[in-house]
Amino acid sequence: MKTFRQELWFNTKSRQEFINITPQVEELVKKSGVKEGLCLVNAMHITASVFINDDEGGLHQDFSAWLEKLAPYAKEKYQHNLSGEDNGDAHLKRTIMGREVVVAITGGKLDFGPWEQIFYGEFDGCRRKRALIKIIGE
Ligand code: ZN
User: Fold this and answer.
1) N or C: which end of the chain has fewer CB within 10 A?
2) Distance between CA atoms of 71 and 65, rounded to whole angstroms?
3) What integer is the mean pLDDT of 89-104?
4) Which runs of E-coded beta strand occur in 15-128?
5) For the chain, first and last CA: distance in Å?
6) Alpha carbon of 54 to ligand 1 centroid (Å)
7) Could you tell me the fold of the domain covering 2-137?
8) CA gap 50, 100 in Å, rounded
């Protein structure tokens, strides 16, 4: 069995951002040489997500508005922020949007359903953070 590991690094300009990382992940699947297997992509920070959905502007605005309703950014609102942090909302947003995705690799390609794309979701950005890509298979 082949195994392959690589990290993707991010430093977003805004606090919250969704980045389509599908092209990078496809490139790494190619580089891994795995034709049949599994590709795991996970955020390595507890205030960022990796999730799969459509790459559509309106939908991303809807996600942002929905998340802001559920867990608005507010310094005073969260017990977590009593520790001096200001990212209580980002921990909650990450939990809702998920930590990781696993995609099947078939014939050397990511085996997606229609419109599926992989996103890195940042909820406490403007600093260096990363996602892990682990690929296993034959
Ligand atoms: Zn925190």
Assistant:
1) N
2) 10
3) 98
4) 17-20, 37-43, 48-53, 100-106, 109-110, 117-122
5) 5
6) 28
7) Jelly Rolls (2.60.120)
8) 5
